[in-house]
Amino acid sequence: MSNPERPHEPLPDDLIELVARRFRVLGEPMRIKLLDRLRDGPASVGELQTATASSQQNVSKHLGVLHDAGLLRRSKDGTFVRYEIADQGVFDLCEQVCGGLRRQFAELDELLRERAGG
Predict the structure, then answer these.
(1) 3-state helix, strand, coil in the chain (%, to 5)
(2) Could you give the C-alpha distances from 112 to 103, 104, 108, 109, in angstroms and in order?
(3) How far is residue 95's CA from residue 11's CA, in Å, rounded to a whole number?
(4) pTM for the whole thing?
(5) Under 8 Å CB-to-CB from 43, ≥6 apart: which residues?
(6) What are the CB-based long-range contacts (under 8 Å, 24+) for 21-27?
(7) Is 95 in contact with 87 (CB distance < 8 Å)?
(8) Which stretches does DSSP call E strand in the chain?
(9) Which run of H or of E encompasses 103?
(10) d(Cα 20, Cα 26) in Å, to the nearest integer?
(11) How confident is residue 23, by pLDDT bands cut at 50, 70 and 90?
(12) 14, 37, 67, 103: least buried by Cβ within 10 Å?
């Protein structure tokens, strides 16, 4: 991210608020579950309800938040509404977080092994 040739310029406050809003949207475990399921392709509320073992009301509420944030788009499929990922970049962010967690767990595991053996 950092470029040694060019100093970092502070983010404008309005952009900071948008970034913080995106993180707040992603800060709910059910929304992560929904996004993870939608990674496999579009799905209806009923399909997502089954996949997450949650109520229709709960799934619909979280889908609405994700849709309003621009992460999902919806389309009519007969009498059903199907949801799909609108911003694939959300998975880049998830991979960054998961990669960071994997590194932390590996470091902790190594530290614990050293202490147990030493």
Answers:
(1) 65, 15, 25
(2) 14, 12, 6, 5
(3) 23
(4) 0.73
(5) 37, 51, 82, 83, 84
(6) 21/69, 22/69, 25/65, 25/66, 25/69, 25/71, 26/90, 26/93
(7) no
(8) 43-44, 72-77, 80-85
(9) helix 89-117
(10) 10
(11) confident
(12) 14
